[in-house]
Design goal:
Order of helices and strands: EHHEEHEEHEEHEEEHHHH
Shape: globular
Distance between the termini: 56 Å
Protein name: Reverse transcriptase domain-containing protein
Structural class: alpha+beta
Helix content: 40-55%
Radius of gyration: 25 Å
Strand content: 15-25%
Number of domains: 2
Organism: Rotaria sordida
Pfam families: HTH_animal, RVT_1
Number of helices: 9
Length: 316
């Protein structure tokens, strides 16, 4: 297992080339080209993504190339450029030893032929285009129960019960077994020879454990979602009940450190599990209605009561 990463992708996207890729698709590759003249589309694209400015140290600069960080078009343009890159070069690299290639934005999960060097493949990929530089992270072998690299710095946040089993002798036994792992995005993938793959939630060493605190002056649903999203990700990422249990323990401790009531967290975990394991009743499709948005100041509980009353009144 290997992970390929592209260094500073957004700021290295060649805009002129990407615009040409879009125009070729719209006017050459499609059987029925768009009715808008090509020159007009090109001008619109240039105006939207090339003529960008930014302020630094009291001076205004023009950005000559690359996508502006934070631009809503940045992910789309990066995807268009990289899909064209893969279309041109990936077939030849499959002949050089790439067995499996799945990319998410600038991170790619890769399987290689054992005879091939991952560093060599990354170097060859970097030579395909002057704007792209690939780096490689290789799988590692560890005896740590939490699958962290041996000798890595201690995480800022750690749960005292994380990855702990009931029997102490089983812990020592598992520690003695070498395990192969690789982190990819927020997933920790474990490869077990002759068994297969297992996944669990991954957090970087720099993770501090800070959430929206319970005493924060924000609507309660924000606090609910802070826990609910973590629980949902745990159910999606963790491939075993043991990993899911461990992650729930981490979530409980995270919530406790940020002042959340235990009952509040447990209710969210139960609700998420019920949504997964309890079949939903089939309800008839409701007719489409217009959405009305009311913007009111937030005054904690009075605002929540007001929102419920307005929603109930509209629903009648």
């Amino acid at each position: 297992m290997f992970s390929f990463d592209i260094v500073s992708l957004y700021t290295n996207i060649p805009l002129a080339e990407t615009i040409q890729i879009i125009l070729d698709y719209l006017y050459k590759d499609r059987t029925s080209p768009t009715t808008i003249p090509m020159a007009d589309v090109k001008k619109l694209l240039q105006f939207a993504i090339q003529d960008s400015h930014f302020l630094f140290n009291g001076k205004i600069y023009d950005q000559k190339d690359g996508v502006s960080m934070g631009s809503p078009l940045a992910p789309l343009l990066a995807q268009i450029f990289l899909q064209d890159f893969e279309k041109k070069y990936l077939p030849s690299f499959k002949e050089k030893g790439i067995v499996y290639w799945k990319r998410y934005v600038d991170d790619t999960f890769v399987f290689l032929d054992p005879k091939v060097s991952a560093q060599d493949i990354a170097a060859q990929l970097s030579q395909c285009h002057p704007s792209l530089k690939f780096t490689c992270e290789e799988e590692y072998t560890t005896r740590n129960k939490d699958l962290s690299k041996e000798g890595s710095p201690k995480k800022k946040f750690s749960h005292k019960n994380q990855y702990v089993t009931e029997k102490k002798d089983s812990i020592e036994e598992e520690k003695s077994i070498p395990r192969i792992a690789l982190s990819f995005l927020d997933v920790l993938v474990e490869r077990q020879p002759s068994i297969g793959f297992q996944t669990r939630k991954y957090r970087k060493e720099t993770f501090t454990g800070l959430l929206t605190e319970w005493d924060s002056f924000v609507p309660k649903r924000y606090k609910y979602n802070a826990i609910s999203t973590m629980v949902y990700r745990a159910t999606i990422i963790c491939s075993t009940y043991e990993a899911l249990h461990d992650e729930f323990e981490v979530i409980r401790d995270l919530a406790l450190q940020n002042g959340y009531p235990v009952a509040f967290v447990e209710s969210i975990i139960r609700r998420q599990l019920n949504l997964i394991y309890t079949p939903r009743a089939i309800t008839p499709t409701a007719p489409e209605t217009d959405t009305i948005v009311l913007r009111v100041p937030y005054y904690e509980k009075p605002s929540q009561i007001y929102a419920k009353r307005v929603t109930a009144a509209v629903a009648k």
